[in-house]
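quick q for whoever's on today - can somebody do inverse folding on this one?? i tried earlier but teh output was garbage lol. tokens:
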């Protein structure tokens, strides 16, 4: 996730588009510039912001994996994060017809690895799901 975020961030700050983007749109950056001179910069802004957010999330998950106690609740919340994030990112592509396998391979790979990791982690937990309770207040 860190590498994917860094890649998207760098693309957003430099070339803005990968070849698959331009093939999908059937346009060049110059064509997009002719539509509006602000279009390519706003796409660069969005792509760099998305890449930065993905990079930051990867850093947070790395530190959680290395430092936080591995509890069933942690695995469940990280799974929920993955379903929300990758579900939206992967789900929107078929909806708009952008199904280039090279473009989608990293997202599918991360999602697959996340499911496999979650399954192996959940095998270690035999207690039923419990809702977090705040600690009792003492004076």
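ok took a stab at it. sequence:
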């Amino acid at each position: 996730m860190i590498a994917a975020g860094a890649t998207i961030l760098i693309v957003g700050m430099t070339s803005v588009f990968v070849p698959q983007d331009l093939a999908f749109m059937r346009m060049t950056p110059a064509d997009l510039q002719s539509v509006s001179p602000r279009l390519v910069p706003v796409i660069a802004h969005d792509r760099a912001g998305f890449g930065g957010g993905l990079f930051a999330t990867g850093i947070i998950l790395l530190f959680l994996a290395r430092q936080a106690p591995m509890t069933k609740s942690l695995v469940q919340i990280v799974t929920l994060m993955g379903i929300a994030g990758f579900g939206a990112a992967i789900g929107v592509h078929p909806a708009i017809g952008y199904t280039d396998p090279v473009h989608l391979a990293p997202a599918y790979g991360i999602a697959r690895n996340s499911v496999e990791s979650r399954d192996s982690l959940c095998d270690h937990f035999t207690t039923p799901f419990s809702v977090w309770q705040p600690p009792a207040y003492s004076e």
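fwiw The chain has a mean pLDDT of 85. also The helical segments are 2-13, 19-25, 29-35, 39-67, 72-96, 101-122. so keep that in mind when u check it
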